[in-house]
Amino acid sequence: MEISPAIHDPQGQEKQQQAAGVGILLQIMMLVLSFVLGHVLRRHKFYYLPEASASLLIGLIVGGLANISNTETSIRTWFNFHDEFFFLFLLPPIIFQSGFSLQPKPFFSNFGAIVTFSVLGTFVASIVTGVLVYLGGVMFLMYRLPFVECLMFGSLISATDPVTVLSIFQELGSDVNLYALVFGESVLNDAMAISLYRTMSLVRSHSSGQNFFMVIVRFLETFVGSMSAGVGVGFTSALLFKYAGLDVDNLQNLECCLFVLFPYFSYMLAEGLSLSGIVSILFTGIVMKHYTYSNLSGNSQRFVSAFFHLISSLAETFVFIYMGFDIAMEKHSWSHVGFICFSILFIVIARAANVFGCGYLVNLARPAHRKIPMTHQKALWYSGLRGAMAFALALQSVHDLPEGHGQTIFTATTAIVVLTVLLIGGSTGTMLEALEVVGDSRDTALGDGFEVVNNRYMTSFDDEDSPSGSGFRTKLREFHKSAASFTELDRNYLTPFFTSHNGEYDDDVNNEISHEERIPFARRGNLNNRG
Question: Which end of the chain has fewer CB within 10 Å, C or N?
Answer without folding.
Answer: N
